[in-house]
Amino acid sequence: MVLLNFTRTLSTRELVQRFTTWNKHRTIMMCAKRQARMAFVKLDNEKNRLSLSFKYESDFVADRLFTINRGQEEPIETSLTRLQMNITGIAMKKFRKQKQKPRAQENISNSNDANKGCSSNENTNNGEDKLKPSITIEDLNGTIIEPFINNREAFRTGHVLNIDGKRFPIVVDAPTVVRISLPKIMMTGFPIQAYVTLEHANLPDCVFSWWRNSVKGETFADYAKDDIIKDKSQTWLRIRGESSRTYNARPEDVGHKIMVYCEPRCGPVVGVEVSAVSSSVVNTPPERCAFEDRHQLTPDILPDNMFRVVSYNLLADVYARTEFSKTVLFNYCPRDALDFEFRKHLLIKEILGYNGDVLCLQEVDRGMFKHELQPCLSLQGFDGIYCEKGAEGAEGCAVFYRKSKFSLTESNRDVLSEKIEEKECLADIRCVVEKNLKLKDRLRNRSTVLQRVLLRHVESKREILVCNTHLYFHPDADHIRLLQAYISVRLAEEQLRKVDEKVYCIP
């Protein structure tokens, strides 16, 4: 009896180097046809489960992804039997279809002489039995692991899943795409963002490919075999030259659905490629946007010794989608134009068109920052900091800066209603406010936040303090806004004094 050898476990890099082409000048080849196939295991220790995913094909199984989810303590014999049943079930369907064709039957049937005296049912069963693959797991030395060993110990990085002689190196907690989707509304000239949630993967390392579905009568003569995907319902054509998370829809995409593939990666390690298809087709945008006239005033990015600041209130979707906003605040606005899926495309295009170097944004939804602004603006050379409001959460402020001109020195978040109670530099304001209980309560109940970002100018080495806030909006709250503005100025002045002291401090 042979048990597991736990003396040494291959590192992920060693495993990749063993089964793939690697050198110091190139990363691992990303084409699935050239890349060594692997078996990916994901551990869920909270539920004591693990999932196994791998791509497999044989004479009777088209290239497809197989996945099983089993308990970590379950013997591998039980799990491998389940996997064998899954593969056999798929193979059986094709076997039975081909059995009805004379040529296919000749290829898979045993000779009549060898089966004399057997019934036709027995012949069929004998043929079907051959479809069951032999499945084992091997350790680092190539020794088959005993069937009573549990899944957690058997499915380890460096071990190999062997299916009828086809070897799949096992990788535990490999780069994984948890979720992927596309926007509901897509328009030409506007970026389409792939929304991706990853595990054990580094987004900048991931490789994307973009596809559009073909229309009736379209020819594929100009497309290589690898640039065409055919499924049951339609054919997809690769959009050449696109490999990033964002794709700018083109005029030729109008009327077509879009599909994106994401191949998750972390350094040289590659996970299972996953795709998403848009729920709608690409449309034409509004004939002309009002902001395009304003863009004519800012046609270029300023030289390195100058910078432009842009401030913009996005109108958070958490407010725009309420019935009060639709019927009272913005009753003059078509419902479609208030739809965030539509607005977000226009917002990003407008903000980028001002060619700013420092962007101060207010009413930024958490999701808008994470899934839209950060990935899209990062491709344009920006980095950003998000600053959520106080108790309400859901939205806040964001500052983006052009990395070629600025570097981040310091970032601070101040909830003004809290700072007035804590900061010594606000003691005189606090003393006055304490005398008016109504004023005190109203000021205390606000979640207004001040975002302070200290940036260093790359060329001059000088620092600038960027303060970004969204004061209390209520029409009868001008006195609250005045106090909030004054508190913000005081906090900014305090930070500037500290910066000056640091600069002129002599050790």
UniProtKB/TrEMBL annotation:
Signal peptide: none
A Pfam entry, by short name: PDE12-like_N
UniProt cross-references to InterPro entries, sorted A to Z: CCR4/nocturin_mRNA_transcr, Endo/exonu/phosph_ase_sf, Endo/exonuclease/phosphatase, PDE12-like_N
GO biological process terms held by the UniProt record: nuclear-transcribed mRNA catabolic process, deadenylation-dependent decay
Region (Disordered): 94-132
Endonuclease/exonuclease/phosphatase domain: residues covered: 311-408
Domain 2',5'-phosphodiesterase 12-like N-terminal span(s) in chain numbering: 175-281
Recorded GO CC terms: mitochondrion
Compositional bias segments (type: Polar residues): 106-126
One annotated GO molecular function: 3'-5'-RNA exonuclease activity
Protein name as it appears in the record: 2',5'-phosphodiesterase 12
Organism (species): Varroa destructor (Honeybee mite)
